[in-house]
Amino acid sequence: MEMPPRSPEESERSPQSKELVTSHTGSTLCISSRSESVWTSAPRSKWDIYRKPIIVVSVGVAIFLFGTVITSLSCFLTHNTNAYKMSGPAFLSLGLMLLVCGLVWIPIIRKKQKQRQKSQFLQSLKSFFFNR
Q1: Integer Cα distance of 33 and 38 in angstroms
Q2: How many independent structural domains does the chain possess?
Q3: pLDDT tens digit string along 74-97?
Q4: Whole-angstrom Cα distance, residue 42 to residue 62?
Q5: Which first-to-last residue range defines the signal peptide (predicted)?
Q6: Rounded to whole angstroms, how far apart are CA atoms 126 and 30?
Q7: Mind listing the pLDDT tens digit for each residue in 17-57?
Q8: Is residue 30 part of a domain?
């Protein structure tokens, strides 16, 4: 007797087909914050908007001051001056880099907020005129 051809069972399927069947990438993309609509998002507080640049600026200032202290120690102490002379300027430059990055980030966020307000205004005008 001939047996009819059977469909491949789960254990016989290739790994690619298992991945395609069990993949949830479509549903996880909708959950991400990037896919949220600009029009439906609730207004955020100033702290929520400027939190990251403020943290970067404050960490940069702290590292810059630490580098200043280490560099000045190389002038006052007589032992291990090579270690202080090498690590002090490294902390100075790292702190200055973080400070400048945070200070440049703030006007970028302000510009994006203004653009978002303009686009929300234009969207409300469109909905007013086209939904009549």
Answers
A1: 11
A2: 1
A3: 888 878 788 888 899 999 999 999
A4: 34
A5: none
A6: 26
A7: 555 555 555 544 444 444 445 455 667 888 888 999 999 99
A8: no
**Within a domain: 124:** no
| pTM greater than 0.85 | no
- Please state, in angstroms and rounded to a whole number, the distance separating the CA atoms of residues 85 and 90: 9
> CB of 72 within 8 A of CB of 120?
no
Q: DSSP letters of the chain? A: -PPPPPPPPTTTS-HHHHHHHH--HHHHHHHSGGGS-TTTSPPPPHHHHHHHHHHHHHHHHHHHHHHHHHHHHHHH-SSSHHHHHHHHHHHHHHHHHHHHHHHHHHHHHHHHHHHHHHHHHHHHHHHHHHT-
19 belongs to a structural domain = no
Cβ atoms < 10 Å from Cβ of 98: 20
Q: Per the domain annotation, does 41 fall within a domain?
A: no
Contact 113, 48 (CB under 8 A): no
Q: What number of CA atoms fall less than 13 Å from residue 27's CA on the CB side?
A: 3
